[in-house]
Design goal:
Strand content: 15-25%
Radius of gyration: 20 Å
Number of strands: 9
Number of helices: 13
Distance between the termini: 36 Å
Strand order of the largest sheet: 3-9-8-5-6
């Protein structure tokens, strides 16, 4: 779950991440029909055009504000087409998306909170994006993967909920992290629906005004910090299963494209940089490395499915991504005795120097991964 407010530690991580993914990118001149310049400030969200041809489009984003921001392309019902989070002040980022003809909203969220500052835009008939058949196969395989992860999560979540309802503190603690793995692997799909993620995966500092705190992290607090299970926790355990069942039933209907897969892989690395590396995601249980590994696995799955086309279009990028995924996988293995298990070192036992090493590995992977979406639709020069 993305953080809505940034601590000093998180802001530092974001600054490092955006330094490698945004600052070196040149701004667009805005003269291409398929490029939309988005200028975000603390009070405005300006777009260079409000009509553009359907197909592949590029958002060339510049944050001229003082706050970290995020930019979304949304369907009329607020489902997410694509997004880019953690855009630091004074930095630029590019996002490639695939859109059909119709109405959309571009939203900038200074401070990464609320509904954002919105601009209504329209994708006109244009020319539909011509897709390599291998990319259609990649989308189908990823949709199957996302469904499998949701299907596998429900039994594990039910084991967790049953322990909470039985008042068994230790059993609930043991079941907590495994119940989250499938969710963490495919989180961008869950987030694309808009309404499920805030119910099941929000942290205390991510709550909107008036929002009731529900989901995994509310129960995590009870188990590790309060060290007791209340009647309310038992009710929340039932609610978690209801919400996760909703997610399971909707995964197969998610809008998935090759570019959303690639952008989702990048989003998973952003999740790691701003939540797991900092220790903020699992601040009570310190099971951050389990989430970390699951996020990387989800990103790597998208990459492997898109890799054949990306390799033809940009072989150098694929070589670098292979190298960085291998490096981060090897580094994570240092924190578990059995490479087939998810029994990782408690994150409160990981020192500052080791956290810095993990952060550097994330940044080294995030930079080339930010270019994957463009590589599946455009051949390098």
């Amino acid at each position: 779950m993305r953080a809505a407010r940034l601590s000093v530690v998180t802001a530092t991580a974001v600054a490092a991440l955006t330094a490698v993914t945004g600052c070196t990118e040149k701004g667009s001149s805005g003269d291409s029909d398929r490029v939309i310049d988005v200028t975000a400030t603390d009070s405005k969200c300006e777009v260079s055009k409000k009509e553009f041809p359907a197909g592949h489009v590029e958002l060339a984003i510049e944050n001229k504000g003082s706050k970290v921001t995020e930019v979304y392309v949304l369907f009329p019902d607020d489902r997410i087409v694509t997004e880019r989070e953690n855009i630091g002040p004074g930095t630029r980022q590019k996002v490639t998306a695939e859109v059909k003809a119709g109405a959309y909203t571009i939203a900038c969220k200074p401070g990464m909170k609320g509904d954002g500052i919105r601009q209504e835009v329209t994708a006109t008939g244009g020319t539909a994006a011509k897709r390599d058949p291998r990319l259609d196969a990649a989308v189908a395989a990823y949709r199957k993967y996302a469904q499998e992860q949701a299907d596998a999560t429900l039994p594990l979540a039910k084991t967790f909920a049953a322990a909470v309802k039985a008042g068994d503190l230790e059993a609930a603690k043991k079941a907590y992290a495994p119940s989250r793995i499938g969710w963490e692997r495919t989180e961008p799909v869950a987030e694309s629906f808009g309404d499920i993620d805030p119910k099941v995966d929000v942290r205390a500092d991510g709550l909107e005004d008036g929002q009731k705190w529900t989901g995994w992290h509310r129960l995590e607090k009870s188990l590790w910090q309060d060290k007791k299970i209340t009647a309310l926790d038992k009710t929340l355990a039932d609610q978690l299963i209801t919400d996760l069942t909703d997610w399971q039933n909707r995964v197969g209907k998610a809008d998935i494209t090759p570019t959303s897969m690639a952008n989702g892989a990048k989003e998973l690395l952003d999740e790691v940089a701003t939540g797991k590396v900092t220790g903020e995601e699992e601040r009570y249980s310190h099971t951050d490395l389990v989430d970390f590994k699951a996020n990387v696995e989800g990103a790597e799955k998208s990459y492997e499915l898109l890799k054949p086309v990306a390799k033809e279009n940009n072989a150098a990028l694929v070589t670098e991504l292979d190298k960085q995924f291998a490096a981060i996988d090897t580094l994570l293995d240092k924190y578990r005795a059995d490479k087939t298990s998810y029994d990782f070192t408690s994150y409160d036992k990981v020192g500052d120097a080791d956290r810095k090493q993990l952060s550097d590995a994330v940044n080294a992977l995030a930079e080339p991964l930010s270019k994957l979406a463009a590589a599946v639709v455009t051949k390098s020069a």
